[in-house]
């Protein structure tokens, strides 16, 4: 008796088309690019990246960083090349060494662990995330229960939750909003992760308020201005776009949301890439208008590389679609400002829109 043996079909690599071949494919109308503005680096990201760069300049390598300083592969790799060492937890940092806390923030327990290990710390938490932390502390002290809208496991949510774990419940999505249970529905307030989709957050809030009429709003909008602005820009572009390309990393919540928002608001297709080299030629079949944007942790150099590739593909006509102007600036962490002042370094005291990107 012969036993049949299953032999897998070998994978044949597809033939990559040349830029000239892609440019020759017929499309309806003219080839063009709609470039979103604002896009890329926000003030909190710029501040955090500069903090690591300045720490390396003044203290020397290595400088340890807990978690990724921001969620972008290019930024992390560039800083590693300069001498930064990224770790998951403070117990991986040698006793007495210097550690930078990422832009996403940390819980009090992490700070306590660093203190116990006698680590020197630079807190690069985005000031807008710090605001949410302070709100959580204040509302918990007033014996309110907090419904924290966000993605469980994300560093920012872990940090905020850690401020008041006995008074906080994480709500991940609309489905959880329909089933979450609370002890006292008359003493409730909602807070949110700063990088969420504005529309989805408001949908969750509406569901919660329908179930809990006494639910209080935070004193100010928790969703970061940069997240809101980048989503507003892609909403304007999406209805005209045959294809939207979002530059950003897979673990960047706001970058992933931009893809979802683009599709929701009418883009025929939308894809996220870390680098121009990841763009697939098959995406351009019949594509006339390409929308381009980037997440809030993406340096502009990566967007320019995408635009250069698109120009090779015949999409050299670029129109910038401006929906907001950003001029937010944040001071560098206080621990670092003291060092820079003592060293007479006045080259960078602020992080914000328009600042030098990591190249």
UniProtKB/TrEMBL annotation:
Cofactor note: Binds 1 [4Fe-4S] cluster per subunit.
Residues that hold dimethylallyl diphosphate according to the record: 71, 104, 154, 252-254, 297
Enzyme Commission identifier(s): 1.17.7.4
Keywords: 4Fe-4S, Iron, Iron-sulfur, Isoprene biosynthesis, Metal-binding, Oxidoreductase
Chain positions recorded as [4Fe-4S] cluster binding sites: 42, 126, 224
Catalysed conversion reaction: dimethylallyl diphosphate + 2 oxidized [2Fe-2S]-[ferredoxin] + H2O = (2E)-4-hydroxy-3-methylbut-2-enyl diphosphate + 2 reduced [2Fe-2S]-[ferredoxin] + 2 H(+); isopentenyl diphosphate + 2 oxidized [2Fe-2S]-[ferredoxin] + H2O = (2E)-4-hydroxy-3-methylbut-2-enyl diphosphate + 2 reduced [2Fe-2S]-[ferredoxin] + 2 H(+)
CDD domains to which the protein is assigned, alphabetical: lytB_ispH
Annotated positions binding (2E)-4-hydroxy-3-methylbut-2-enyl diphosphate: 71, 104, 154, 194, 252-254, 297
GO biological process, one term: dimethylallyl diphosphate biosynthetic process
Residues annotated for isopentenyl diphosphate binding in this entry: 71, 104, 154, 252-254, 297
Recorded family membership: Belongs to the IspH family.
Known role: Catalyzes the conversion of 1-hydroxy-2-methyl-2-(E)-butenyl 4-diphosphate (HMBPP) into a mixture of isopentenyl diphosphate (IPP) and dimethylallyl diphosphate (DMAPP). Acts in the terminal step of the DOXP/MEP pathway for isoprenoid precursor biosynthesis.
Name by which UniProt lists this protein: 4-hydroxy-3-methylbut-2-enyl diphosphate reductase
Lineage start: Bacteria, Bacillati, Actinomycetota, Actinomycetes, Micrococcales
